[in-house]
Write a structure and sequence with these properties.
The protein has 4 helices and 8 strands. The chain is of the alpha+beta class. It has a single domain, classed as PH-domain like (Roll). The strands form 2 sheets. A 4-stranded antiparallel sheet has the order 1-2-3-4. Strands 5, 6, 7 and 8 form a 4-stranded antiparallel sheet that branches.
Length: 152
């Protein structure tokens, strides 16, 4: 039995909302600090830091998130879970399903609006998160893993 799960395309919308909220907070903090800072050198440093943070968020939104969407997948094959991530640096995590002891699912307010969920698989050694999956795929993955856990 080989099943493959890919991240939901709604992860782009989730990251978009999170990044936009972060940019708004950076701008608000910038303007609040402008009222309290009087030295020109501190103002220029504040402008540089604010610009760098906004640039990093836009870079994350436009480049990193789409690359992660394309390159991340979760495969269940021969009683193993294989999670592959990365574009330039590939990371492959192999988890024997017999080593999974507990499952948690994460669904924040933005994820709830978008209908996506993250499943955390807890082993003795670590907690490994699935890619952001649609609710349907997350439920399917959770049911398969619960069957394996209950068989122990």
């Amino acid at each position: 039995m080989k099943l493959e799960f890919k991240p939901s395309k709604k992860v782009l919308a989730v990251n978009f909302f999170q990044d936009i909220i972060s940019i708004i907070f950076i701008i608000l903090i910038y303007y609040c600090l402008m009222f309290f800072i009087t030295k020109p050198t501190y103002i220029s440093i504040l402008k540089i830091i604010s610009f760098c943070l906004i640039f990093l968020l836009v870079y994350h939104l436009l480049i990193i998130t789409p690359l992660n969407l394309v390159t991340t997948k979760l495969i269940i094959d021969n009683m193993e879970i294989i999670i592959t991530k990365g574009f330039f640096v590939k990371k492959k995590t192999i988890i024997p399903t017999s080593k999974i002891y507990f499952l948690k699912d994460f669904k924040g307010p933005i994820q709830s609006m978008m209908g996506v969920k993250i499943i955390s698989m807890i082993t003795i050694a670590a907690e490994i998160e699935s890619p952001t999956l649609s609710n349907k795929d997350a439920q399917k993955l959770s049911n398969i893993l619960m069957e394996v856990i209950n068989e122990k």
